[in-house]
Design goal:
It is a single chain. With about 425 residues, this protein is an alpha+beta fold. It has one domain. The chain is about 10% helix and about 25% strand. It has 5 helices and 19 strands. The strands form 3 sheets. Strands 5, 10, 11, 12, 13, 15, 16, 18 and 19 form a 9-stranded antiparallel sheet that branches. The protein has a 7-stranded antiparallel sheet with strand order 9-8-7-6-14-4-17. A hairpin with a 5-residue loop joins strand 1 and strand 2. Helix 1 packs across helix 3. The longest helix has 15 residues.
Length: about 425
């Protein structure tokens, strides 16, 4: 495959599902951050004690001392995030009960070096960058939970479980989640060990409780035991407190009913790249009918260790991996892949977020967001161009995808996706 110009690198050349369930960001942010946090507001209710603002503030500080691992060094970025450089063996991954004795599996050929991505100044050797949680993050999580009483982890899971279910009817848009893109057709005997693509990077407009992403989802298992790894870019004010375009990942072994999280908010993802955090801000953003940027992302399962390696860039720089131990079905293989755009709007009958570039013009990749150089890894761990005999399109009332085909050495297998969003009567091609 040819090298492409990628985000945070060189300028790129210009060129003339069923329904996604996705990582339900507002839900999982509240679940992860409030797992041990007490949601409170001032008097007794059903035997559960409310406390004062001062006591609430003390509780926030206590939670932050638990969530934020000790820092060997601290890095503040130009866009306001603070990253703690955490000892590689004290990172959040090892909070997972199945990883207590896990030995980090860094490939022999891996060498830490300056990166085109992530932090301008990387962390010291033997440490990894973990975004520092703030009091504002916890306040936002409390607001998202919409609870006025003391809540346990079990309360939170019950409260949100209805939203953490796969939507299997693409005509049912009422939950606010919508997907447009391409997906494999489940076929007996057809399995996968990874997927990747160059993803065009934009900054779609969203409202405070909405999100808009371009992502790849690698999945396996039946509905309520669904294992998946998702990765790509996202704009998500509820998760990050801003509307910047960021790298993101998400994982679960049961469709987020009780497991999984975004990035490093819980144990699971083993990080070993000292320069590239999982939630860094993309600084080079494409403009419709203007300059275009894309970034290559991939997740590929190792044929011996079975870990799922996460890579970035044309040189496939390793960021880290998800161990097979944290999964059930994905510990062996995947049976389903999706590539495309995903949005969430809590009041989608009144308004929905932009997807991709916010413009849909079929085949016009200077205006419409695209995936190019799309691949999957087949049953023999060999990269292959998706076979359209096993691929189907998924789009919705507001968002579209098309033009999935092999074009030339630069574009290879590619497609466009996106939409304007807005209210249902405003949605247009």
């Amino acid at each position: 495959m040819t090298k492409s110009n990628i985000l945070n690198g060189r300028k790129m050349k210009r060129s003339s599902v069923d329904m996604a369930f996705g990582a339900f960001r507002t839900t999982m942010l509240a679940v992860i951050l409030l797992t041990t946090f007490t949601c409170i507001n001032g008097e007794e209710e059903e035997g559960r004690t409310r406390i004062s603002e001062e006591e609430e503030d003390i509780e926030f500080e206590r939670q932050l001392s638990i969530l934020n691992k000790p820092a060997i060094k601290t890095i503040k970025t130009e866009y306001g995030d603070v990253y703690n450089c955490v000892d590689i063996y004290k990172q959040p991954a090892f909070d997972h009960p199945l990883l207590k004795d896990h030995k980090i599996q860094i490939p022999e050929e891996y060498a830490s070096k300056p990166s085109k991505f992530g932090l301008k100044e990387g962390c010291p050797q033997g440490t990894v960058p973990i975004r520092r949680m703030t009091k504002e993050d916890l306040k936002r999580a409390k607001s998202i939970s919409k609870s006025n009483r003391r809540m346990t982890k079990e309360d939170l899971i019950k409260s949100f479980s209805k939203r953490n279910v796969v939507i299997i009817d693409p005509q049912k848009q009422g939950d606010g989640h919508e997907f447009a893109g391409f997906e494999t057709i489940k076929t007996p005997g057809r399995v996968y060990h990874g997927a990747g693509a160059n993803i065009n990077v934009y900054n779609p407009a969203v409202q405070p409780e909405e999100f808009s992403s371009a992502m790849i989802s690698i999945e396996s298992g039946p509905l309520y035991q669904r294992n998946y790894i998702q990765f790509g870019w996202t704009v998500d004010p509820s998760l990050y407190g801003d509307s910047k375009t960021r790298l993101f990942t998400s994982w679960t072994k049961d469709n987020h009913l009780t497991t999984g999280c975004f990035n490093t908010l819980c144990g699971g993802f083993v990080h070993f790249n000292a320069n590239v955090p999982l939630d860094f801000v993309f600084t080079n953003i494409s403009q419709s009918m203007g300059e275009q940027f894309d970034v290559r992302l991939g997740v590929y399962q190792h044929n011996i260790t079975k870990v799922w390696n996460f890579v970035i860039g044309d040189e496939e720089e390793l960021i880290g991996y998800w161990p097979a131990d944290i999964f059930s079905h994905l510990s062996i293989e995947a049976d389903y892949i999706r590539w495309g755009g995903q949005v969430y709007s809590p009041n989608s009958e009144q308004h929905s977020a932009q997807m991709g570039s916010g413009v849909w013009r079929d085949g016009w990749y200077q205006e419409t967001c695209y995936f190019r150089r799309v691949i999957d890894l087949d049953a023999t761990y060999t990269p292959e161009v998706p076979n359209n005999a096993y691929i189907q399109r998924s789009d919705t009332r507001c968002y579209y995808a098309d033009d999935n085909s092999y074009k030339d050495d630069y574009w290879q297998y590619s497609f466009g996706f996106g939409g304007t969003g807005g209210s249902p009567h405003q949605c247009r091609r």
